[in-house]
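New to this. Please check this record:
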Amino acid sequence: MAKSVMVAYVLWAMGGPLGLHHVYLGRDSHALLWMLTLGGFGFGWVREFIRIPAYVGEANQEAEKDRKTRPTMVLPPVSPVRFVGQVFVGIYFGTMALIGLNSLSLFYLIVLPLCVGAGVHLVSCIGQQTSDLRKTLTTCLITSPIFYGSSLSPLPISLAASVTAASHRRHRPPPPPGSSQKLGPRIYRLGLAWLAFSAPLGYSIFHNTTATLYYLSDCVAALLDMFWFLPWLRNVFEYILLMPYRLLCVITGGGYYEDAWRRMLEILLKDYTEKEKEALRVLSLEIEASLEDITRSYRKLAKTWHPDHNPSKDAEAMFVKINEAYEILLRRHKPQKFK
């Protein structure tokens, strides 16, 4: 069935940064890239306003099997836009790996270069082109030891991988007869790819790093400000991003109140260190203990173990331990008090 330019533009306007129009046109690699970068950080989405007719023409050409007549041995023309996209997306994937996967063993030797190479290859596979994945990843693995341990290593690795991918660019071979895929399995695979990208990052933000929800909210606000020229689209993104909180309110029966949001932040932001966990054990407290609970328990235990009231030979050492635990937890909770 022939694709419609009008439908493609409607999907571009409604969910372009999420790649809906690319899903419609069968450009799954492009759709995944847009899902992971919100439409090429907004710039690629805007640029596509003049590119959609060409995309629709390519999709209809494939449907008519005209690609079979194209000599696949002839190299596609060099595209500076594609090369720049490869470099930036490779750096982007590498940066996300630095945030979410840097605790893994052999991170700088294997994990980081593979992530950068995956980003570069994703851009290489957009449209009717592809590249040699094995050679791209090999280049990344060879380059990574040179910049071992550097937080700037995604840049040179991505540059080397992009040069390799551009050198081995080729036309995508025509699909075998009867290989047209249904929408359901395609969406399923796109969802798995998105989950594989976002899950380590989300886990890192909320469990393994010092990033807090306040920092995350600032990042989201900055992201939304990118769409100042289209207020309605900004409102759509804001609604989607707040959906988890609204769903939580519906499930718990709560309302959209600032105090409820603050209480939830207090719980989520309590990422205790081992030293602070030991202090909680000394004061016989649970993780969710409030500042009032800590003070109450401290006063009770300090009175019990004070050397002037307790003749035990361990009283003085225990009293010092209780004071140290209280000071640790006091430093922990004072910055979290809301004004």
